[in-house]
Design goal:
16 helices, FGGY_N, Nucleotidyltransferase, domain 5, about 20% strand, seven-stranded mixed β-sheet, carbohydrate metabolism, kinase, single chain, kinase activity, about 35% helix, Carb_kinase_FGGY
Amino acid sequence: MGIVAGLDSSLDSTRIVVCDTDTGAVIREGYAAHHTAPAPDGGKPTRADPQAWLLGFGEAAGGGLLEGVEAIGVSAQQQGVVPLDHHGNAVCPALVGNDPREQGAATDLVDALGGRFAWAQAVGCVPEAGRAVTKLRQLARTEPAAAERVAAVAQPHDWLTWQLLGRPGRRTTDRGDASGTGYWSAASGSWRPDLVELALGHQAGLPEVLAPAEAAGRTPEGLLISAGTGETMAAAFGLGISDGDAVVSLGASGSVSAIHHSALADPTGTITSFADATGRHLPVVRTQNAVRALRGAAELLGVDLPGLSELALRSTPGAHGLVLLPYLDGERTPELPHTAGTLAGLRRESMKPEHLARAAFEGMLCGLADALGVLRARGVQVRRVFLLGSAAGLPAVTRLAPALFGARVVVPEAADYTTLGAARQAAWALGVHDGRLGAYDPPVWSAAAGEVHDPGEDIPVGQAVHQQYAAVRDERHPGAFAATSGQTAT
């Protein structure tokens, strides 16, 4: 028995968990807030001093938290870039977050390479705001003098690992975090330096990509540091998802990801072809609208989300013919950036609060079922869905989701799965180093506990509801979903 630690450095805070190497049981935890200046417009910050991440680590690890720890894994925010000069110092504050002003740079990059298809073939994803390659383009556009000084680029997890190791000559990253940059291909497993040059205007040094169980090195104090990874990949590893599993995340917007054996080059750009933290792949499909549709309906009806859920369960499947296309902020799946939502099927008998509430839940879940359908159409097996997010435990969600997704649904108990994933990776690297584990055999930790909801005999009901939804979707936006997904909508 030994102990390892996992660290997650987000935009707002640093979290650390210390775990038993063999079981994954959490022994102790640490936390520290990051003191980041707000954006000038009052929104989320788009620049951050990376030294704050180191200070956050020191504060979170205070009080002997890491006493006895043999290895640590580092995960961090994926929408970030630290531009470094020839001395390894930051040229400017780290570029972080999803800055809407970067969309123009993303459009420039798409056009410069010859369109979305060219990018999807090259690196498995299409430039968008928040992507590392887009941030480099934005820096070159708006701060050319700073861009000229950039000699190397790192993502937050790369930079933190390098700092904790004492700034050695070798800088490293992993497949998962590299796959989110926009200049590394999950399909070929290689960097595309030409795309860095396309974005920045010149070449820049890139870190060595480590294998999943490989160690980045040891700190001056002797602590082994694993390869590390991005937050999405660490959370998937912490949940313990495997073949046949998908993760549906319910935030204001939504995302669907699943384990797959190969990279999926998607000419439409709907699928982002990430690599995972185990040597496999983690294709992701996003929707622009998820819980924001529920909140909008709740405000309209004068209730909170639990009240909306209670109302929805008073209705029946199909909401008496009422269908909500929840495209309130435009939509990504299907690709309809400038559209608006649609409420169809209004009749006297359907104009009741409970039917509108039901339509909101069914619309949100059908939109996510569309995203699942995109992955299934490409051969991704989905037999179990882990449902995460603020609305995941609402009774209307857990009651409707299994039939609409056509799969068993698990709502995991609250836990910091990102830090757990980082800790599990540390245990893997330590086990390989000690000869106890193989390079393809991660430690078997207890599966995420939670509520399990089976579709039972309701799958035909879910299919009928989704067909009603799809009919309205295709009538209102002919061909949009088929063009986005590369399949015939049903």
